[in-house]
Amino acid sequence: MPEGDTVWRTARRLHLALAGRELTRTDLRWPSLATVDLTGRSTLEVVSRGKHLLHRIEGGLTLHSHLRMEGSWRVHPAPGPRRVPSTTRAVLACDEHVAVGTSLGMLDLVDTRAEDGLVGHLGPDLLGPDWDPDCVVTRYAQAGARPIGEALLDQRIAAGIGTMYAAEALFLRRISPWTTVGELPDEVLTRIVETARRAMTVNCARAVQRTTPDTLRETTWVHGRADRPCLRCGTAIRVDPIGVAPTDRVMFHCPACQAPGS
After folding, report:
1. 160 beta partners
2. Which pairs with CB-CB distance under 8 Å and at least 24 residues apart come from 203-207?
3. How confident is the model at residue 34 (pLDDT cuts 50, 70, 90)?
4. Which residues pair with 93 in a beta bridge?
5. Against a cut of 0.90, is the pTM above it?
6. Rounded to the nearest 10 degrees, what angle do helices 186-203 and 133-141 cross at?
7. CA angle 26-31-34, nearest 5°?
């Protein structure tokens, strides 16, 4: 699933292409929205909220989308591609650009005043104007007996961190993903979250995500590197499930650098 910085970049790309421009063609290929026509309305702004996209439209409407695992939005110069993929779920066009949403996991059209019904459950956004580190650390501390790796993935606590930034931040802080939140002092929780946030912020300006120095060939320390040597100690990187089914995920880690109590 895309991380918060990927969704932020997507929102930025859509905003630059559509904001302040009248929609000249719309095609929403979603059962509940198949008859909706937004032609003639102007895009006010497109913003991200964690891993959600909010496309605010003239007339008090918001088109909400979520990329899930495989979704994407692509922006093309008008008149756009002659043919779009069969997985296309939305087409939004103005005089200069055409935005095509494919394999979207969610697509809703709601009153802008009702956005909280879709994203109100989310915690503060690591890349948003509502970011409050003290509030977020307090929220994490309340997770108590949960493993820190699991808690970092809970969008209700803080929005935007996915499996990559969780794994990378915990590696950089030398903390096992299975250490319970209650075992970690507030200052350690602060360092973990700020490590993830700094990496996400830097990657907002990059086409390719990287958490390692530019001098290294590898772009991540542990994520996606199962069975390959740790860049710090040489131990084989492991990937193991974390969390409780059916919402369990996988976490990459170095069993030596991140040994409990290390």
Report:
1. none
2. 203/5, 204/5, 204/8, 204/9, 204/12, 204/127
3. very high
4. 25, 98
5. yes
6. 130
7. 30
